[in-house]
Amino acid sequence: MKNQTAALALMLALALPAFAQTKEEQRLDNSAKVFQDILSNNGLPKSVLDKAECALIFPSVKKVAVGIGSSYGRGALICRKGATMNGSWGAPAMYKLDQGSIGLQLGSTATDFVLLVMNQKGAEQILNGKTKLGSNASAAAGPGAQATSYNAEAMNADVLTYSRSKGLFAGVSLEGASMDGDSDANKSLYGKDLTVKEIITGSTAPPAGAKSLIDVLDKASAARK
After folding, report:
1. What pLDDT is recorded for position 110?
2. What predicted TM-score, i.e. pTM, was given to this entire model?
């Protein structure tokens, strides 16, 4: 009986960190897993990631209105440090996605989205408030694993977009999607009111729950020279 009690106590002790994890920390963990998946399955060329200044990850975006095709997702924005965003990856901000015309692409399954911000124009737009892809920031389906180099002029896009609903990641058009900071989630994660720009460009230390996401990106793409 003593052995059974001790085993139960050990199981509970190991489970406590998972129970204590907040929904924001869980969102960061899910974002890290999605990004690791796109890297592991060759869905994102390193030549593209190396040029990116920020990344937005939205795990398991679900269709919420069958007739209209509206969808809504919550994820994270993470950018490189430094005035020109060429350093290692910094503290993440919570972000949300709202799209009213991708229902046909989503079908009835949950879809993961990864968006890469490729230049200062796109980064500034996203950091300054609500952004509509195709309007405030130009967007294009990201090149696949066959791409050996990235030509910014040829792509002519501020944001490159990828999605996965079944199987492997592929480039997808997200034109018309709206994105904005998730103020409530950021306050919960950091313990005070902070704008997305304050989190990304300030001196705020990343929370412990962001370590897995930052590690994935730092290992995949070192600081740019």
Report:
1. 78
2. 0.82
Statement: residue 150 has pLDDT above 70: no
Q: At what angle do helices 23-40 and 211-220 cross, to 10 degrees?
A: 20
Q: What is the structure's pLDDT at 187?
A: 96
Task: Centre a 10 Å sphere on the Cβ of residue 162 and count the other Cβ atoms it contains.
Answer: 25
Q: How far is CA 33 from CA 74, 92, 181, 215, 217, in A?
A: 15, 15, 21, 11, 11
- Tell me the CA end-to-end span of the chain in Å, nearest whole number: 62
**How many other C-beta atoms lie within 10 A of the C-beta of residue 126?**
30
Residue 170 buriedness (CB in 10 A; 0-12 / 13-18 / 19+): middle
Res 151: pLDDT:
59
Which position has the token pair 């930052």? 214
Give 48's contacts (C-beta < 8 A, 6+ positions apart): 116, 142, 143, 147, 150, 160
Distance CA 180, CA 186 (A): 12
Rounded to an integer, what distance in angstroms lies between the CA atom of residue 65 and that of residue 100?
9
Residue 210 DSSP code:
G
Domain range list for the chain: 23-220
Question: Is residue 152 classed as helix, strand or coil in its secondary structure?
Answer: helix
Count of C-beta atoms within a 10 Å radius of residue 193:
10
